[in-house]
Amino acid sequence: MKGVRVFASLVFVALCSAYTVDYKGHQLWRVDDITAAQLDDVRAIIKNLDLDVWASGRTWVDVRVTPQLRRSLGKTLAALNLNFRVQTEDLQSPIDEERNNLRQRKSSTGITIDDYNDLETIEAFMKETAANYDWVTIESIGKSLEGRDLWVNILSVPGGAEKPIAWIDCGIHAREWITHSTCVYGLDHLTKEYGKDQEVTELLDKYDIYLMPVYNPDGYSFTWTDDRMWRKNRAPTSDPFCIGVDLNRNQDDGHWDGPYSSTDPCSDAYRGTAPFSEPESKAVSDYIESLTQHQKVNAYFNLHSYSQLWMHVFGWTFELAPENDVLESVSKIGCDAIKATHGETFDYGPIASTIYPANGGTADWGYKIGIVHSYGLELRDRSSFILPKSEILPAAEETWAGIRAALMAIE
Ligand code: 0X9
Ligand code: ZN
How many CB atoms lie within 10 A of CB 304? Predict the structure, then answer.
């Protein structure tokens, strides 16, 4: 009897701690009110301590702090007069909470639009949607490093003259789950509402929509099994202890080898060995480029989280694009539509000055191949990759309102 109980509790423990990477005791700190004069200090601390940066803005940065680092980092920041506050006391607790919620739901099969869905469920939903609508197709545009299909849904309502294309992808960064759920919502909403909702109907009458809910399936799958906070793909690197290339530093934007990415395979911003060295970024970019041969690709939306930003080119330089005025006005239209949905505010502007400069990003690549309206969006919220279930639909609704408004404004 005792043996049975021990066995039962072992099974229970195994189910509860399904992730192999544990963040118990890790905290998320926000270093705030950073002045221009303090910026170099902050950068040096991040580099010296090899801190894991989760997000940042013009005057703040969120870093994950291990239990071992707390004391010394606190002292260092205080000595430099840098303000910081603990944003999440124990990073494992929201991860556990999220997992418990998902487990409770698990009795139901099939997609749940107002919740997070694993890779298999999303793929099944994409196939099912293509089977249910004669104007929706599904295509595998290549394979990930671990051999998973890279799926895209094409929403193309027949009739009228040839339409321009709008490309929207989600999940280039594995842990940004609110983006995957936003793409899934889009697929569901646009298909169900075409011919009923006037705004959806106008959008699909104007555009062929190419929707890729999971840009980085190997990484996404890994965030469900091993490490909820995984960001990159799962490519082996020259360092046997470090895995993964940041697919948003791997694009052939003409400035891949610039200073604003990492050459260190252990970094979360590792650029890879060459532009488009990665099967995922290569497949997506080849495919989009092939689309431009036959049809106009009017816009590219690359979805991220978090920090509520709507960004346009450039990322590689602080210089402004010649089209900056129009990019700013379309971004404003997008942000206004977001605000009108649930009151959330998004800041907008060029990538370099709105978040930070970055080489090898999707928007700069899109711009380089002639897609001027190439945007990078950072969705909700302002403090975490883990968003409660209650925010999944609102986040998706406002994002699609923004994308729709922007697309209707682009000529
Ligand atoms: O660093 C990034 O790649 C993005 N931020 S995140 O925290 N989601 O990782 C910002 C990149 C902005 N550039 C493009 N989207 N092209
Ligand atoms: Zn991201």
Answer: 22
116 CA → ligand 1 middle, Å: 21
Question: Distance (Å, rounded) from C-alpha 304 to C-alpha 229?
Answer: 14
Structure tokens at 312: 């346009």
Q: Give me the residues paired with residue 305 across strands.
A: 379
Cα(332)–Cα(297) distance, integer angstroms:
21
**Which atom of ligand 1 lies closest to the CA of 374?**
16
Distance CA 348, CA 163 (A): 28
Closest residue by CA, ligand 1 atom 14: 376
Pocket around ligand 1 at a 6 A CB cut-off:
55, 173, 176, 248, 302, 304, 311, 315, 351, 355, 358, 361-363, 376, 378
Q: Sort 374 into a burial class: Cβ within 10 Å, 0-12 / 13-18 / 19+.
A: buried
| Domains of the chain by start residue, with CATH | 27-89 (3.30.70.340), 111-227+270-409 (3.40.630.10)
pLDDT tens-digit map of 201-247:
999 999 999 999 999 999 999 999 999 999 999 999 999 999 999 99
pTM over 0.90: yes
Tokens for 378? Answer: 């950072």
